[in-house]
Amino acid sequence: MFLLCATQYLAAQVPDKIKVACIGNSITYGYGLDNPDKESYPARLQEMLGNNYDVKNFGKSGATLLNKGHRPYKDQEEFQKAMKFAGDIAVIHLGVNDTDPRDWPDYRDYFVADYLALIDSCRKANPKVRVIVCRLTPIWDRHPRFESSTRDWEDEIQQAIETVAQTAQVQLTDLHEVLYTYPHYFPDAIHPNTQGAQILAQTVYSAITGDFGGLKLSPLYSDNMVLQHNCPIQIQGTDNAGEKITVRIGNQTHTTITGTDGHWSVTLRPLTANENYTLAISDSKQKVTYHHVAAGEVWLCSGQSNMEFQLQQATTGPKDIPLSDNENIRLFDMKANWQTDNKAWTATALDSINQLQYYQKTKWSQCTPKTSATFSAIAYYFGKTLYDSLQVPIGLICNAIGGSPTEAWIDRSTIEHQIPGLLHNWPHNDYIQKWVGERALTNMKNSHNKLQRHPYAPCYLFETGIHPLQQFHIRGVIWYQGESNAHNVNVHRKLFKWLVASWRSYWEKPDMPFYYVQLSSLNRPSWTWFRDSQRLLMQEIPYTGMAVSSDKGDSLDVHPRDKKAIGERLARWALHCDYGYNLTPSGPLIRSARLARSNQVILDFDYSQGLRTSDGKAPSCFEIAEVDGLYQPATATIQGNQIILWSEQIRHPRFVRYGWQPFTRANLINEEGLPASTFRTEISR
User: Fold this and answer.
1) Less Cβ crowding at N or C end of the chain, within 10 Å?
2) pTM surpassing 0.90?
3) Nearest to residue 36, comparing CAs of 13, 52, 60?
4) Collapsing DSSP states into helix, strand and coil, what is residue 606?
5) CA 103 to chain centre
6) What does the pLDDT look like over 359-405, one tens digit per residue?
7) How many CB atoms lie within 10 A of CB 35?
């Protein structure tokens, strides 16, 4: 009798389990997994939530949200079971199959109403139900209908789901963003594998419980960090939902509450440079404090190996490294875990790269002979020049990767919408320079996974090296890249515009300065055209500037060692355009070519004050052609700030070019000693 009463008493103290209904299609069901009963996201979710929850999988393969679709979820047995289950929590992930041509083109106008009706059904089954609707998991470019329809229809459905959440006043969780950097977790471009299902489960777990793992911030937050001064800046991170966050710096204190998505942010009032700050961030359980925080100018330094090229490798390195001790120059050096050379990577390296762990862990450090020696030479000289002029702390973030092509640095959405062909079988397609594809294939040869990702893959370096910066406030970008794209000038011209637009969109700064290095001289025939394309890009993209480097090239080495002048030339653009210094930012840039008497050609330039030559000789490397495009050497003289050209062999001049050799000894400079850009242009009449 006593045992019976005790048992009954204990049972009465155990609350009923919280019922979770996972409503969806084949992704919820676990299609493609070896054992959906154990590997699907609802099964994993049950393990995470524990015994106080009862999670049921009501996924139906092929189901549409649309009631007039080819397989409406409301007509399926799984819907009836879900309503009978009457979950306390309903997690709905539907809409992927509605991208079918049988559905969205004809019935898109019903989507919001049908989704609201489904939510009403859940509420009718359990008036106290908590509804969580999900933004769709990604559909990848490998899907056969991706370009023709699926990509755009998925975008429209994602927007419709957000409308549903707002209208029904239910919780929205994002299954798209958390998986958008993991295409290799979707073998058939639709259904996640076990790793993808685990991420789904973790995301839904956090949405249900509000547990996002406590207070977390970007690795960019560390002692010795530099925050951009003279403008409002965001401090942001993640924490458990509903946590009160307090941020203190200087005389400022800001508080906020973490959202249901785990994100929080506060906006600091503009900070004053040349002060030593302490930044403290706390919630109810944790406090993180960062010391020796500076406010100043923050620049991102990126590209491929010539930006990666270390100060200790530069010709001026041995002299300048011992003099580099400066606590007001701070370095955040993002070095790769594995170099992109021809050595085969180990299985461990491949697995780590597959997990988007390509960069080593790092933190801000003061500039010292030890830290500067292995830092980017160009970035160092750029930063030093800024500091010498501005006398405020300078923060330099470097994440350059040797051999990387432009497309690796562009965000996935931009490539998917602008040039999706880049993504298809990328090591073999026509966009990729042959040696780049071959090197990538060599690196990947240890992998049996056809979706193994490589740092040269389109989007990869944006996803590993730019997106993790979490929009850390920067003043601008310096960029040295192009060697891996010089074989296809026309494609690069598009890619570079999308790269700049992509980064400006990410930082929400449409006028963000972007200064880049024109390729140097080297015995590669395509480089003449590529350099001229880079010159024209400066005219086509606002808030950009180009540092000429052809005078510092090496005919046999793609890595010229004289980096000091290049870093300083980039700094001249920033000082002139962004900091209001009255200095000449560039060497002469061709403005026009016009025909004068006796078949002479007059060339006018920007930044041509004090036009002269670097060797004291007559201007060299000028050529003129008639309409046939057959160029002949031209005699050139300097008259004031103009160049006068003529050739006895050319009777009807139509085109002129300068320094049009892969490795050029062109010698035109201005009074500042800055070299003229090589060019090709048509003569006006």
Assistant:
1) N
2) yes
3) 60
4) strand
5) 34
6) 899 999 999 999 999 999 999 999 999 999 999 999 999 999 999 99
7) 10
